[in-house]
Design goal:
The protein is mostly helical. It is 81% helix and 0% strand.
């Protein structure tokens, strides 16, 4: 009973966390629309595998995570650059008369590796899971031990996959059933990427200004 509670707690948190528009789920949606459901699933599988690895590290090495703030700052800058590149690629694809593909998401790089790489340089998930794990430890829902950790991480993986599946099949549905114009879809995803990058950049600059004032 205790282990199932941990499993479904991880699943619920992860599922709800995967629903808001973000870099990885929007990328999965665009890959599904342009390259097919199978490639999008490969992409999401790579991304969630890295996410599960990050959660595992945060559980067994919390002190190490706290001391790596500079590393996370560098990852934030890399992530912003990648998201801006995704936005530009989407806008370039939208500018083509027939509606082209995002040259980054539809590159020759295996989709599993692409998803893993984009997830690895996405630092947003690190404080997210660090915070939730701390709360669950405090409430005695999650207890130290490999068995608890394994069920928790398994639930997280399944929750993320289900959440991403909504975007994957939703993107395919938009293209197949609603006959959506690829140019419009590329414009929308490009706009989402651009807004996400700007928000991340502003947050990073605000943190920097705050640290200078202190």
């Amino acid at each position: 009973m205790h282990l199932m509670r941990i499993f479904f707690t991880g699943l619920l948190i992860s599922f709800l966390g995967a629903l808001p528009l973000g870099t990885l789920n929007v990328a999965a949606m665009q890959i599904s629309a342009s390259d097919g459901i199978r490639d999008a699933i490969y992409f999401s599988s790579g991304a969630l595998l890295v996410e599960m690895g990050y959660v595992r590290i945060s559980l067994v090495a919390m002190d190490w995570v706290r001391k790596r703030k500079q590393l996370f700052k560098w990852l934030e800058w890399v992530s912003v650059l990648i998201i801006f590149a995704l936005a530009i690629s989407s806008f370039i694809a939208a500018a083509k008369p027939s509606g082209g593909k995002n040259i980054i998401l539809s590159s020759g790089l295996p989709k599993f590796l692409l998803g893993a790489t984009m997830s690895a340089v996405n630092p947003v998930q690190i404080p997210f899971w660090f915070g939730w794990s701390t709360v669950l430890f405090a409430k005695k829902i999650l207890l130290p031990g490999n068995r608890d950790y394994n069920f928790y991480i398994a639930g997280i993986g399944l929750g993320t996959f289900i959440g991403n599946a909504i975007f994957i099949f939703g993107g395919r549905f938009i293209v197949d059933k609603l006959n959506a114009n690829n140019q419009i879809l590329n414009l929308v995803t490009g706009g989402i990427f651009a807004i996400t990058a700007v928000i991340m950049l502003l947050k990073m600059l605000m943190k920097k200004d705050a640290s200078v004032r202190l």
